[in-house]
Specification:
Number of domains of chain A: 2
Helix content of chain A: 25-40%
Oligomer: heterodimer
Largest sheet of chain A: 4 strands, antiparallel
CATH topology of chain B: Cytochrome Bc1 Complex, Chain D, domain 2
Number of helices of chain B: 8
Strand content of chain B: under 5%
Number of strands of chain A: 6
CATH architecture of chain B: Orthogonal Bundle
Radius of gyration of chain A: 24 Å
Number of domains of chain B: 1
CATH class of chain B: Mainly Alpha
Number of helices of chain A: 4
Order of helices and strands of chain A: HHHHEEEEEE
Structural class of chain B: mainly alpha
Order of helices and strands of chain B: HHHHHHHH
Chain lengths: ~180, ~170
């Protein structure tokens, strides 16, 4: 007597299917459902999740030390911290120029639990700052599905030099 | 169970899972200005000005796009507008902030000019379904702003400032 295991059940089902339908029809149906029903929804889900107050970044964020990646304003930063390069949270180190364009993120300040709009401006004009303070936070970033929401951009364009030095996190408004 | 039934069952489960997550993840509504800063202001500038040659200025200029129907539609059909991840009502409110507030004409309203008509959620919902897909968006923009300058008293810089999108970074 054959024992009914998951393997044998799977094999029986597969053999029966193989005998009754063409592979192409099944593949086309499954593929069609997958691409039509699931793919368009994924980026929306992630975008929504990014603004949910209980993100992993927010739960671990601190407001004291701007030289570490868990500083609250760095929730969507991607780059070297100017705080470690002779500059400040929102000021460029001497000899560099702030970019006119930026990536913008919404970060929650754990002290008052409010959402703030943060502009991540690059400081440009000299070669990359030699520091170990590199952070890559991905709140609200969805580069695979939507290239326009990719924060891995050098924002120095429009300035005289495209040389990237470090990144700042300026507070530009309250998200309400 | 036939393959078709199996596929249908699988799809039903996936739709339910994905739909549920998307619904639960709806971001809370924020003000049109905050939406602008977060979604547009990085490149266009928090106050509507940044690098005019690479990213069109909006300050005191975007409002002229309400001058005719094609220009009006162009704004809502721009890919990054049409595909932005906010609902029709929030998108309409954000566009109204851009065209009526940020991009309003510099100085007092033109004598005798009709008050600009704000975007509605239904209108934006309809327009964004036909997002622009033409390869040369700049040429299309130039044709539209040329008309705005010629017929709607829009400033010449609308036509001359913008040189095209930045070259992709390495």
């Amino acid at each position: 007597m054959t024992k009914l295991t998951l393997d044998s059940l799977g094999e029986r089902l597969t053999r029966r299917m193989a005998g009754s339908v063409s592979r192409r029809s099944a593949l086309a149906k499954v593929g069609g459902f997958l691409s039509a029903a699931v793919l368009p929804v994924l980026p929306v889900s992630k975008a929504g999740a990014a603004t949910t107050p209980s993100s992993a970044f927010t739960r671990n964020a601190q407001t004291k030390d701007p030289k570490t990646c868990d500083y609250w304003r760095y929730c969507a930063i991607d780059g070297l911290l100017c705080s470690c390069c002779g500059g400040g949270v929102h000021t460029c180190p001497p000899g560099t120029q702030p970019s006119a364009v930026s990536w913008v993120g919404t970060c929650i300040n754990p002290d008052d639990n409010k959402s703030y709009l943060i502009a991540y401006r690059d400081c440009c004009g000299t070669s990359a700052c030699r520091t170990k303070c590199y952070c890559d936070s991905t709140e609200r970033e969805t580069p695979v599905y939507r290239p326009q929401t990719d924060n891995d951009v050098i924002w120095c364009f429009g300035l005289s030099s495209m040389s990237y030095h470090c990144s700042t996190a300026a507070l530009v408004g309250i998200a309400e | 169970m036939t393959a078709a039934a199996l596929a249908a069952a699988l799809a039903a489960v996936l739709i339910a899972a994905a739909g549920g997550r998307a619904h639960a993840g709806q971001p809370p509504s924020i003000s049109p200005k905050a939406n602008y800063i977060e979604r547009c202001g990085g490149c266009h500038g928090v106050d509507g000005r940044s690098v005019a040659a690479l990213v069109p200025d909006l300050k005191h200029t975007a409002g002229y796009f309400l001058c005719d129907e094609e220009a009006r539609a162009y704004v809502a059909r721009l890919p990054n507008v049409a595909f932005s991840q906010i609902n029709d009502a929030d998108l309409a409110a954000m566009l109204n902030f851009v065209v009526l507030d940020l991009g309003a004409r510099d100085g007092p309203p033109q004598p005798g000019a009709a008050a600009p008509r704000p975007y509605t959620a239904a209108e934006v919902g309809r327009l964004r379904r036909t997002a622009l897909t033409i390869p040369d968006l700049k040429a299309y923009r130039q044709r539209i702003v040329g008309r705005l300058v010629a017929r709607c008293a829009a400033p010449d810089r609308l036509l001359t400032d913008y040189q095209g999108p930045p070259t992709p970074s390495p």
